Amino acid sequence: MKEQEILQLFKDSGALLDGHFVLTSGNHSPHYIEKFRVLERPRYTEMLCKELAEKFRNDNVTLVVGPMTGGILLAYEVGKNLDTKAIFTERVEGKMKFRRGFEVKPDDRVLIVEDIISTGGSVQEVIDEVKRFKAEIVGVGCLVDRSGGKVDFGIPLKPLVKMDVVAFKPDEVPEWLNKIPVTKPGSTNK
């Protein structure tokens, strides 16, 4: 799939939003990608994960890891496409950790998958957790890199789509954006 076709899936599912959003990082943005509008459509999720898997097809991946919540769906579907195991991390005392008896072995070749990367904080926590087990990380795959390529994990990052979405620190929000009612995605039942 070409990047324009992937973006069309996001548009068709209503995932590309405009307004005033407070991101997980605490930064403010006039644009937001509500990934669950895409991920709630199994056929779209399957198509996107097949594309992610293809980017790492020749890396001999033995384990796919995703951070909770969206990363669980992606890890499962990418793992299915690569015919390997898929596990996930969860927040424990504020940090991404493995639970539920999940194992990472030193000889594993790990692919980390994420839905949207903005600052890369959650992915870095997963990288740190995998490194505790001395496994090799072959790369990070994501649906959207909204940092515009600014995030660098020191390992290959292969997004399906790269976007340079503007974001403002809480004390630098421009007046025009402050005039728009704030939405904190994921914090309501809407």
Average residue pLDDT: 93
Q: Using the alpha-carbon principal axes, give the shape.
A: globular
| CATH level 3 topology | Rossmann fold
Number of domains in the coordinates? 1
CATH C-level label: Alpha Beta
Helix content: 25-40%
Q: Cα distance, first to last residue?
A: 31 Å
The chain-level structural class is alpha/beta
What's the β-strand tally? 9
**Helix/strand order:** HEEHHEHEEEHEEHE
Estimate what percentage of residues fall within beta strands. Answer: 25-35%
Low-confidence stretches: none
Radius of gyration: 17 Å
Largest sheet, spatial ordering of strands: 5-4-3-6-7-8
CATH architecture assignment name: 3-Layer(aba) Sandwich
Largest sheet: 6 strands, mixed
Number of helices: 6
Explain what this protein looks like in three dimensions:
This protein is an alpha/beta fold. It has one domain: Rossmann fold (3-Layer(aba) Sandwich). The protein has six helices and nine strands. It has helices at 3-12, 36-39, 42-55, 70-82, 121-131, 175-178; strands at residues 16-22, 28-33, 63-67, 85-92, 95-98, 109-117, 136-145, 157-162, 182-183. Strands 5-4-3-6-7-8 form a six-stranded mixed beta sheet, sandwiched between helices. A three-stranded mixed beta sheet has the order 2-1-9, with no helix packed on it. Helix 3 (42-55) crosses helix 4 (70-82). The longest helix is centred in the N-terminal third of the chain and has 14 residues, at 42-55. The model has no long low-confidence stretch (mean pLDDT 93).
